[in-house]
Design a protein that fits this description.
27% helix, 20 strands, Helix Hairpins, 4 helices, conserved putative lor/sdh protein from methanococcus maripaludis s2 fold, alpha+beta, elongated, six-stranded mixed beta sheet, six-stranded antiparallel beta barrel
Length: 387
């Protein structure tokens, strides 16, 4: 029995040696260690990077006016086509002018009576002056006559004011467009009682030029000002960004605009600073009230360092990249990442020109791991066409 067990052990010994030999990597380094991981790198360099900002925006007419009547009356006629262009001074609505014409006639008659009384008072004063000089009447009688003349003059002024008011009311029965633009639908129809300015009749919107209004988040606005103060960001001269509009279908509007207004206040409801750009809209392609995206170009980050997004990793302590050291080992380098630029991160601090940042193969390494920089292979020539 003992002899058979011994023979079995000797039979298994060559198989164990074979398996042990198979576990060693063929062509590996001495001692059986893993070969350095192959990685791709880019050399850090400084360059000027254009900056593009993009925000959600909404269009608004250059001027939007509510059309309201100034007098109370029955609406007799609508003088425009809904949704069509109108000119400044064009009659949009007509209110029954008959009651106001009657009031004007009465005011003019009252003015005539006041003029007659004033003329009578002046004649009376002129008559009593020589009589007083002859001391045929008392000074009080002359003074009373002069006071009556002054009262008559005041009555004439009051009557004339009532005439002007009545005449204005007659002209106000013709409701005109205060600006040139596109008229909206009529809110009130013919035959309705219009109670003066309390009732909205329609709106007129000037669509050329067109405003595009957007809000810049307060946090981003503060970061922008900080970068400008630190010299990391250079704004266009006079803050005149080149603005473009991306429509709802993703296409770009064929015109460019300029940034003309930035509010000094922060909207307490949205936490944004309102800004406004102005665009020419002669073809009326932009419509008031539609949601778009605005793109602002013209800013520049001078001497910026940009690395691919895939090279920037996240740790509990913040963002970092792997840098190849002088002895070809991976070194974890904490960095301060700014904003995205295309498909890369702008690195504000942590890297210096000339350093080699690992872009591909970061998942195969760790801090201090040996690496081997992969040499990019030349593209193979395309096969020649067979004739």
């Amino acid at each position: 029995m003992l002899l058979s067990k011994t023979r079995a052990l000797f039979a298994l010994f060559p198989m164990a040696l074979l398996m042990n030999a198979c576990d060693k990597p063929a062509g590996g380094p001495p001692g059986g260690g893993m070969p350095p991981a192959q990685v791709s790198v880019i050399a850090v360099e400084k360059r000027d990077v254009p900056v593009r900002y993009e925000y959600v925006a909404q269009t608004a007419g250059y001027r939007e006016v509510e059309v309201r009547a100034r007098v109370t009356g029955i609406l007799q006629k609508r003088g425009y086509k809904e949704g069509a262009p109108v000119k400044k001074g064009q009659s949009l609505f007509s209110i029954d002018a008959a009651p106001f014409q009657v009031a004007l006639d009465k005011a003019e008659a009252d003015l005539s009576v006041a003029d007659v009384r004033l003329a009578q008072a002046r004649r009376e004063v002129a008559r009593l002056k020589p009589v007083r000089e002859a001391k045929a009447i008392s000074q009080k009688e002359l003074d009373d006559s002069a006071s009556a003349e002054q009262v008559a003059e005041a009555e004439v002024k009051s009557a004339r004011a009532r005439v002007n008011e009545a005449r204005l009311n007659v002209t106000y029965t013709r409701v005109e467009s205060p600006i040139s633009g596109i008229a909206s639908r009529a809110v009130v129809s013919e035959g309705a009682l219009v109670s003066g300015p309390q009732v909205l009749l329609t709106t007129v919107t000037q669509t050329d030029p067109m405003y595009v209004i957007f809000g810049v988040p307060d946090r981003e606005f503060m970061a922008l000002r900080r970068d400008v103060d630190l010299g990391r960001l250079r704004l266009p001269a006079g803050g005149q960004f080149l603005a473009r509009v991306k429509l709802g279908d993703g296409s770009l509007y064929d015109g460019t605009g300029t940034l003309g207004f930035t509010d000094v206040r922060v909207n307490t409801q949205t936490g944004t600073t309102e800004s406004r750009a102005e665009f020419s809209n002669k073809n009326n392609r932009l419509r008031a009230g539609e949601f778009v995206r605005i793109i602002l170009d013209g800013a520049l980050r001078p001497d910026a360092i940009v690395v691919p997004q895939r090279a920037v990793l996240e740790s509990p302590k913040g963002k970092f990249v792997y840098v190849v050291s002088a002895d070809n080992k991976a070194e974890a380098r904490p960095v301060e990442a700014g904003e995205w630029s295309g498909d890369g991160w702008v690195i504000n601090s942590g890297l210096k020109p000339g350093e080699r940042v690992i872009t591909d193969g970061v998942m195969k390494i760790g801090p201090g791991a040996p690496v081997q920089i992969a040499v990019p292979t030349a593209a193979k020539p395309a096969p020649a066409d067979k004739k």
